[in-house]
Amino acid sequence: MRLKGCAYPVTNMPSNLPLPLDGIRVTDFSWIVAGPQATRILADLGADVVKVENESYLDSMRIGLKQDADNPSLNQSGFHSSLSRNKRSITANLFHPKGREAVERLLAVSDVVIENYSAGAFARMGFPWEHLQEINPSLIYVSVSGFGHVGRDASYGTWGPTAQAVSGATAMSGLPDQPPAGWGFSYLDHSAGYYAAIAVLMALHHRARTGEAQHVDMSQIETGMAVSAVPMLDYQVNGRTYERIGNRSRHPATAPHNTYRCAGDDRWIAIAVDDEAQWASLCDVLGLDALCDDPRFVDMTTRKAHEDELDEAIAAVTCERDPFDLMLELQGRGVPAGVCQRTDDKQERDPQLAERGFYPTAPHAELGEHRYEGLPMQFSGARWRMDRGAPLIGEHNHAVLTELLGYDEEEFASMVSELAI
């Protein structure tokens, strides 16, 4: 099943297909993860995303996860390269009149400006909604903050993990007799980015229909509420409060329904049995036919009542099996099963992801050629792109200021010498 040396095309779509957001320009003040995730999607879909940076207030993603500790650089973070691929970068000193003027010129020729600072920070930087409208009446302003700009907690700042805790997502993850495990990943940073990208598209659609721009105020906390939608409905309708159950299933009550250790270093498989036919097939594949006649496991009710013993019996066998071989054998017998894939599995041996070109390669000036995660959709009449990794800091100062904003060479040189950019 391993696909050694398999080619990952940029996409499976012809390069002559149009980019959906070609012609849209985004001024990007975002940093860390939530905002850059949104603008990454927009850039992948063809928007000209110009990231406005300042070397005195760096995006922390630029200075983390360096590739070469002996030769530090602001351009070697793989995380930053993934989040800011396909974008352009300029540096601007907002404390210098010429730097601020350059940014305002950029806003005047942009369709969207987006930031994910704490509520009110962008206004304190001199860009309240009212001033943005003065600069460009058709400019859409998207702000992504922890609690939004309205409400008792609007002044609070958040990070992905704290937002997950407040939204209720953290309490939902883990085992019933253990403290909340959390998600081990800044899920809400990324989900906030997805929602922000949707918000931009809806605002562009609204402007196309009405001619009106608007300020979109998005709350990161609220993007996590969707994760707990079913438990909240269960509480309202049935009066049941949520309890952590690990990988098991309570509603509907099915067993076995868990992850089981397999042969190898930290290898696991997820198995879920929905009916008696699947149960019989599972027992046959695992050589556990005796379990079918065991009174503890004769039907779903008894299996659920003795779930601990059931999981122990299954794990005693799966621990000797290769996870991929076992997955394919179970799937072939109609039993829902899936390997808990690691990063190397997804990139090197998953034929589905390979065929869809989900991990295209792209160049980066310092990191070289690397794979990047793609977009999870393909279009019959359009495409997304993966042209390049993140820009070097300030890489496009000259191109943006002279070609787009109209500064001549003398003015550009003056701005560089005065540290305005």
Can you give a write-up of this model?
The chain has 421 residues and is of the alpha/beta class. It is built from 18 helices and eleven strands. The chain has helices at residues 34-44, 78-83, 97-108, 121-124, 129-135, 160-167, 187-210, 220-223, 229-238, 276-286, 289-293, 300-305, 307-318, 323-332, 343-348, 351-355, 397-404, 409-417, and strands at residues 25-28, 48-53, 88-91, 112-115, 140-145, 215-219, 257-261, 268-272, 337-339, 361-362, 370-371. A six-stranded parallel sheet has the order 3-2-1-4-5-6, sandwiched between helices. A hairpin with a 7-residue loop joins strand 10 (361-362) and strand 11 (370-371). Helix 6 packs across helix 7. The protein is elongated and about 85 Å long.
Trace the largest sheet across and list its strands.
3-2-1-4-5-6
> How many strands in all?
11
How many strands, which pairing sense, and closed or not: the largest β-sheet? 6 strands, parallel
SSE arrangement, N to C: EHEHEHEHHEHHEHHEEHHHHHEHHEEHH
Termini distance? 52 Å
The average pLDDT is: 93
Give a brief rundown of this model.
This protein has 421 residues and is an alpha/beta fold.
Layout of helices and strands:
Layout: E1 25-28, H1 34-44, E2 48-53, H2 78-83, E3 88-91, H3 97-108, E4 112-115, H4 121-124, H5 129-135, E5 140-145, H6 160-167, H7 187-210, E6 215-219, H8 220-223, H9 229-238, E7 257-261, E8 268-272, H10 276-286, H11 289-293, H12 300-305, H13 307-318, H14 323-332, E9 337-339, H15 343-348, H16 351-355, E10 361-362, E11 370-371, H17 397-404, H18 409-417
Parallel strand pairs: 1-2, 1-4, 2-3, 4-5, 5-6
Antiparallel strand pairs: 7-8, 8-9, 10-11
Helix pairs in contact: 1-7, 6-7
